[in-house]
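Schema walkthrough. Field components (list of strings):
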Amino acid sequence: NAGVTQTPKFQVLKTGQSMTLQCAQDMNHNSMYWYRQDPGMGLRLIYYSASEGTTDKGEVPNGYNVSRLNKREFSLRLESAAPSQTSVYFCASSEAGYRRSSYNEQFFGPGTRLTVL
Amino acid sequence: AQSVTQPDIHITVSEGASLELRCNYSYGATPYLFWYVQSPGQGLQLLLKYFSGDTLVQGIKGFEAEFKRSQSSFNLRKPSVHWSDAAEYFCAVGPRSGTYKYIFGTGTRLKVLA
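Field assembly_structure (string):
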């Protein structure tokens, strides 16, 4: 099992460009998450999907959109990148179900390091 | 408001010394508690977790953590630190029901002196 995979690993964008970060998990997890990590700020939740077909905003959703394509895949889109979106982006998944409590840990991908010039 | 506090941004210890990383949380009920480790350039790896039962939990790489309800704390410990333990450590809480959000602390960066 590959666990949680993310593509690309690195990306440099110019201000105003768009891009999609891809995430896939092969653990049959219901819930998937997108975080950004900035120095001194820990992980901040951008969006999450409790189950296939649902998405919800997290702590810092502005400037981002997400798509839960199927149970395996959860993508994050930057429509018009800004320098403030320079960060490391992590995708995670967990076994938390729509009607079950989040009693299991999250599994993280290796991250995407994004620089917006 | 729900929150996780890791009061120490940086900690430096000598190899072979003991280690304790602090974590305090604010939550309406007893949450699920986690410690993750992140090596440079890597994703987060779970060290250990607490759901219920014995308040002293053992994890991987020789780490342990103790849940203290009265202090709302979940401190991470290791009796003897190895140079390979240099990394960033994150405490997190997860909900037992309702929302599916996990809340992370801001992390503690550990430096190990040879």
